[in-house]
Amino acid sequence: MEKRLTEAGMNVTGWTVLSSACTISSWEDVLSGNPTIRESDALLVMSCGGGVSVISGEAGIRVYPALDTKSLGGVCRDETLIERCGLCGECTVWMYGGVCPVIRCAKGLLNGPCGGAMDGKCEVDSRDCAWDEIFEKLKETDSLELLELAKEPKDHARKYRVET
Ligand code: SF4
Ligand code: SF4
Fold this sequence. Notes:
By secondary structure, this protein is α+β, with helices and mostly antiparallel strands. The protein contains 5 helices and 4 strands; from the N terminus they run H-H-E-H-E-E-E-H-H. Helices cover 23% and strands 9% of the residues. The strands form 2 sheets. A two-stranded parallel sheet has the order 1-2. The mean pLDDT is 90. One iron/sulfur cluster binds next to helix 4.
């Protein structure tokens, strides 16, 4: 990125790598990684939108996101994980072997598959059918009886956004 910005005619004052942009102890702590950043007119943050928001709140200068955040996934070893949680405010993922149908099933179905999957593939898009994975996970943990529980619809009133 430094090379690209420089080639675009910008003066890159410096950069630092944070273990997590959305969990910082203080702005001074961020600067301790490279104090020359203090000279900057603007920052480019290469994290998800959560990190961009936190840095924006502390930096006191313009902050731009380098990425277009599409999901709250994660990383395990070298594998980038797809979106795992839809932030519904009412976590029942234990009923699904840790595979959340709110976000992993294209239709967000809570009580079993739609029946449209073909060869393990979702009928909506190119994803693997989440309900196949839910079944396998529950089988693996000897929890298939959880499939027999009728799951209530989500209480969408709980998906409120916390006042800031
Ligand atoms: S049930 Fe809700 S809180 Fe739990 S993983 Fe799924 S979306 Fe996230
Ligand atoms: S095929 Fe599977 S993942 Fe796709 S909508 Fe139906 S149940 Fe959900």
